[in-house]
Amino acid sequence: MSASDLPDELWARVLELGTASSTLGFRELCCLAIASRRLGRLSLHPDLWSALISRDFPSQFQPSTSSTSQQQQLHPKSLYKTKFERHKVRMAEARRRAVFEAEARVFACRRRLSELDNSMRAEGERMKAAAQELDNLERVRRASVALNVWQPQVVHGRQKQLVQQCTVPVESRLSDLNMELKVCKQQIATYKNSYNKEKHKLNEYEEALKRAKYHPLQDNHTSGIINQPRAKRKKLK
């Protein structure tokens, strides 16, 4: 016995069990509809599409009386198509929001990285200036000590000139500069730690942005169909 010899009642039961068990979805019914006139007629049975509607679009709220009466005038397949198109719009809007939020996170993270980089550069310049001043004051301190030791007049004159040009208390300033260098190193280490953490976050945000921009074939499908990763998308007719 061939498949064409099966009675309509048996085929209808097969389709009914398929939709009830989630084996058949709207794509499969659409494929069956173009397989033959007989299957096209059987696949249009309202109960099949009503089952798909209740499965793929579970009610989130009680519809109003006017909308209920209007829906009752539509064939369940037409109603499924309407809901499907609305679902696609909602999915597209949700994707756009996800992309916008991901882009905002990436932008904020990059701005934070730029701020941290500028802060590290500024702190590095501050540490460099403090180190240069510390080196100059060390020379002044050594020259001040050397003035009490016998030396040639030329050398003694240069050391005396260095001491006279210094207008700040050497010892207290040396202590301040050493403390400033220590603080600068600690601050730079803190900035580097924050920079590395922010860089890690940026990598995660950029990956999330790629995922948000990715458009797999099943994105616009209903929740019951999304779990089929390689299913080809069929347009409802």
Automatic annotation (TrEMBL):
Record's keyword annotation contains Coiled coil: yes
Disordered: annotated segments: 218-237
Protein name, as recorded: F-box domain-containing protein
UniProt keywords, alphabetically: Coiled coil
Segments forming a coiled coil: 174-215
Organism of provenance: Digitaria exilis
Keyword Coiled coil: yes
Highest taxon of source: Eukaryota
Organism taxonomic ancestry: Eukaryota, Viridiplantae, Streptophyta, Embryophyta, Tracheophyta
